[in-house]
Each structure stands twice: as C-alpha cells, then as structure tokens.
Amino acid sequence: MYILENILQAPNLKIKKSNYISIVTDNIQTSREILIGFYNYFSEKKAPLEQKILVLDYLTGEKEQISSKYPIYIGSSEIDSEVELGSKTFLYSRILGYFKEKFPIEPVFLTLNSLMENFFLEDVFENFKKEFSLYSKYSIEFESNPFTPSDLIKKLDIKYSLNNESKNLNEISNYEKIKLKLSMYEIKEVIGNREKIYIFNYPESLLTSFEIKQLKKFLEELATNGDVVLLATNSKFLLGNNLDSVNFVQNGKLLNFDKDDILKEKYLENYPKLKEWSFIEKRLLYLIKNYILEHFEEVKITNKLKNEIDEIYLKSYEDIFIIIFYLKEIGILYSLDLVYDEHCVFSNYINKNFNR
N or C: which end of the chain has fewer CB within 10 A? Predict the structure, then answer.
C-alpha cells in the first residue's frame, strides 16, 4: 500500500500496491494529481515544498526509495508531436544529446566544419566585398560559423516504415505511437537496474475500442515482466483483472482500502447459496467493469424494464446481490428499484438486508 501526501484533492491518499494499478476516480483533476505526483516523485522533479508530493510505504511510514523506479508518463493529449522532431520533444533532446556527445570526436563532423572554413576563403568573396563597399567607407567581412548539433537536427526528417514500406505518421495507429514513445524513453544507460513505472492518464481517450484491447494485453505483459503499470481509466477493458489492482477513489479517499482481504470472508459468510470464491470474484469483477464504471458516483439498480440511462438493469437476483454487497462494503452510494421474488433466496436476502 502506498500513501500519497500533499495531493490537493486527496490528502494522505492510499493506493494499493501491485504491478498493475488501475485507478477510478470521481474527479479527473484528482486522477491527474495522483499520476503527476508519482511521476514527479520518482523523477525527482523540483516543486515548491507545499506542492511536493511524497510517496510513502503504508506499513513502515518510510518514503519510497526514489532511485528504485524510473517513471515514464503518457498523457491523454495528442501524441503525434511526441514522435516527431519538434524542438521541445524528448526525441529531439535525446538526439541532440547524442550529437553533442559525438560532435567533438566524430571525424565526419570535424571534416564538415573544416570544409566550411575552407569554403569561406577570402578570394571567394572578394568581388562581393568590392561591390558592397562601392559607395561606403565601410568594408564587409564574412565569417563561417561551425555546424552545431542543432543545425544537423534541422536537416533530419523522420520516416517510419513497416515491412520495408514507408508510412506517414497519420497512417500509424495511436496504439503504435504509444509504443514508439515508450521505446524512446527506455534508455538503458539511464534506467540501469531500476524498475520502470509506466504511468498512463486515461489512454482510452486516444484509442479505438480494438486498440484499447491491444493496449491492455501489452500493459499486462509489461506488468508480468516485473515493471509497474499505473493508470487512471474509465475503460472496463483497462481495469485490473483482480480486486487488488482496482482502486476506487471518491471524495479524495480510497473506498476499497483494506477491504479486499476481508471481502472473501464476508461474501462466503453471507452468500445465500454455497459457492466458490473464485466464481464470486470473477462475477464481481465482470459487474464492476460492465456496470459500476459508468455509474460511479451513485449506483441505481433495477430489474424493471424502464430504459432509464442512469440506471443499471440487472435481471439476475444473484448479480444484484453480488454488486450491492460490494457497494455497501466499500461505501459507494446506491439505490434500488426492484420487484422481489419470495421464492428466490437472493431476492429475500436483498429485501431484508439491503432495501432502503
């Protein structure tokens, strides 16, 4: 468990530790503060003391070791510029750094500047000097400035290809652009042996439905390899695949903090029929992904066919029981508009214990 201190929207916020951390909030600004807080902390970004986010270990209260992770941030804005050679992009700064390192010692660069010096010989510009000084007492002189790394980058164009076929940037999917950007940031000499933490701010806003599913598979592979994936999302496809990886944050608090450990015991103790926990957990995650994400602030549940867009229609009393039990445990507001069946044990339990 992490504790994040000094987040404006959520002071002393708790976030569950795992290799795949998905965060669902009722406030986009809170999501952004959480993600930027993690990024700034592990990248040692300077900030005023009152704005500096601290990441602590919940059990020890000690600050997480900054040097333990290498953060890579992917925002929710357009990413085309990130895979081009704009002067403010990471790709530009990385190539510029390479040229600056090689320029003083690389023979081809030294030869280039030497040729420029030889080109600007006095006799080449002698006629120009006479013409420009025809009427004035001033003479004109020419000097050659050496090529710099920045000059060389201006002469570069980026071409992308697939199977030896050239592609324009607008022909490349945003999913592939995300992977290109991640590759640009993974500098082995800088990362060393540190664990990478990939931070995504609502990546689904950049992607098609098919690309979102592709991204989920890719992110799971990153997490399986021992790195950490941290993302804010409202997509059922990007939510974590187990309860430990899901964080519901509402009004600045983690609702399902310290609940998952006892949830299994409580479900099995109160379940009206004998069922395995694996079945209950799988069904609960399905209901969370397909229903709760769209109705996070207050959940309205019905089994009446009314076609109201702000209500969740569930036909199965067992599904209704599973989801209400969870909502009540973690403290998400809910309301019920149900027709009950006295012959169904789940319906009777709901009517007796959850009806309000």
Answer: C
Predicted TM-score (pTM) of the model is 0.78
The two three-digit tokens of residue 114, written as one number: 């030497």
Task: Name, in order, each residue with C-beta under 8 angstroms of 121's C-beta and a sequence gap of 6 or more.
Answer: none
Question: Considering the domain boundaries, does residue 167 fall inside one?
Answer: no
Are residues 348 and 213 both part of a single domain?
Answer: no
Continuous segment of H or E residues that includes residue 91: helix 90-102
224 and 106, same structural domain? no
Q: Which domain holds residue 329?
A: 259-353
Report residue 149 CA to chain centroid gap. Answer: 32
Tokens of 161: 């290809």
Taking only the tens place, the pLDDT of each residue in 228-276 is: 999 999 888 998 888 788 888 877 777 776 555 688 888 999 999 989 9
Which conformational region is residue 169 in: left (phi greater than 0), alpha (psi within -120 to 50 degrees), or beta?
A: alpha
Amino acid at 250: Q
Considering only CA atoms, give the Rg of the chain. Answer: 29
> CB neighbours (10 Å) of residue 276?
9
- Per residue in 205-219, pLDDT tens? 888 999 999 999 999
- 180 found inside a domain: yes
Residue 168 lies in a domain: no
Say how many domains are in the chain. Answer: 3
Q: What length does the chain have?
A: 356
Residue 279 domain-assigned?
yes
Q: What is the DSSP string of 176-225?
A: HHHHHHHHHH--HHHHTTPEEEEEEESGGGGS-HHHHHHHHHHHHHHHHT
Strand pairing of 13-15 and 195-201? unpaired
